[in-house]
Description:
6-stranded mixed beta sheet, 4 helices, alpha/beta
Amino acid sequence: xxxxxxxxxxxxxDAFDGLLxxxxxxxxxxxxxxxxxxxxxxxxxxxxxxxxxxxETLRDALAGQGRLDAAPPEAADVVHLTGDRDxxxxxxxxxxxxxPSDGATAVYVVDSLAAGAxxxxxxxxxxxxxxxxxxxxxxxxxxxxxxxxxxxQSSYPRGVDAVFASDDRxxxxxxxxxxxxx
Length: 182
């Protein structure tokens, strides 16, 4: 992943560790190699995992390694959502009751991200597995986008896992949690 400015061994390992921590403890913010969205996508995508992205740099780097299996957003395993936000996350794959793990992972590129209600973005209240009581996360996404994500996660165990990436930080909302836009 040197084409993305990432070390293919150390940076993807660090991104995996950060992603694992974020998924295990929803609402926390983890440090990962920068840019976080590229680190996460390059960690998750291989020749068996489909990707939807409009990021040409990312597409070219993965294609150059034979790791790009492009798919439309509604069929992709990983959906990389940049600033254009022309994808309705409710249309992404949610898996089935037999295979809920077939649900997509949406990787959102955001300008700001913080644990707690900081006022720097839309606040989401989180409850469920991995959360001690209630947690809050501030994300620079419109309320409507976060409400659509909550809807996409409303049929547990089916749903869409979400990762928010900003610079060298990430947070995650797995499909197992309940979210409420504050």
